Predict the structure.
Amino acid sequence: MSRVRVLVGTRKGAFILTADGMRRDWAVSGPHFPGWEVYHLKGSPADPERIYASQSSAWFGQMVQRSDDGGVSWRAVGKDFVYDGLAGTHQWYDGTAHPWEFNRVWHFEPSLTDPDTVFAGVEDAALFKSRDGGASWQELSGLRRHTTGATWQPGAGGMCLHSILLDPGNPERLYTAISAAGAFRSDDGGASWQPINQGLRSAYIPDPIAEVGHCVHHIALHPSNPDRLFMQKHWDVMRSDDAGAHWYEISGDLPTDFGFVIDVHAHEPETVYVVPIKSDQEHFPIDGKLSVYRSRSGGGDWERLSQGLPERDCYVNVLRDAMAVDTLDACGIYFGTTGGQVYVSPDAGETWHAIVRNLPAVLSVEVQTLP
Amino acid sequence: MELPSGLSTVARLPRDVLVRVEGVVTLAAVLDALEAAHPVLRGMIRDAVTGQRRKFIRFFACQRDFSHHAVDEALPDVVARGEEVLLIVGAIAGG
């Protein structure tokens, strides 16, 4: 029977949750790297035993940990993220020019085909790549050197490159998203980039339809239709059918279109999940009721899924990298909260239960489906 | 010197670490020796690019704060002789 391994990054360490395909009885391993922030862990699609983890601390900086045995043991690998050439400046909160400074790795995206190749999205926003299993990192500086780069500004959480999508049908195409610059696409393996923000409208910037400056919270795609992108923006849930060239809104009948996560069902490319959050000031569910919303039509019309989720007094947030799906026949949906709960639905959202309830604040959730 | 627990765990070292320094025993020389012996600590006390002390790290010895002293200033003789400990401290900050 297939198994699942859930990789959970939290404010104070990493946890690994495992279960068989029923997804009822769970074993919990951790904390790994106790006391450290673990923004993200992700396994290689080409070798699921290979996992990369971002371990960081405001005191001691960045570590990169790698496991070759599915998270049983770890070893520190390269942590030198040096911007290519003169780093230059971007715009600071007050509008002044601010030097680009490395702060942490927000997201690892392992190659679809090579366990030793992995991308890292970092703060201050840049994309790095390793071809040697994380031993060394080189910046793909064409992104940061885009003509708009000096105008990018941090969002409240910092200027982070938090989303990296690899096109499974075209190894030269990849997408990134940056708060608060927007979404970008490369068609040449990451050498050069173009902003793909046409159709986004953001009331919190001077020109609501500017080429860059949009606070994109997360983007997702389905492998069978990689030109179709879904986006949870600061406000608005958006969709593109042409690889990001144009976007249109699919918020439809959501009770609020603010939120952080968005993901796609493993076997239904039109089935999308979001967790609506009340507002940019009130980072918790409406009326204290934690709910996932699902659209089976690619957006626009949404259904509330809440069976097994708290119906009252729930004031947690679900951060941008804290939702994932497995690829079992009955697609499992997972998300983690800032209250330390990790929920699973083994039936595509119909019912939910908590795997764990009392972890540190959850920063990220990834799932591996294992034979 | 004494490392903060977070760094001793990462480096798989005891909290108390002895390093040998040739010539004048300065903060820079001590940290150079520490990082040479334990490369995993590079960038975790001082920024790997600028060499500046990380903002939440402090250096204490002999009941004095050396965090804001010049890194090429000689440390007290008792520290140089290994009779007093140079404390590398994670500042009180955050949760």
The interface with chain B takes residues 35-36, 57-63, 76, 79-80, 82, 102 of chain A (CB under 8 Å). The mean pLDDT of chain A is 97. The radius of gyration of chain A is 19 Å.
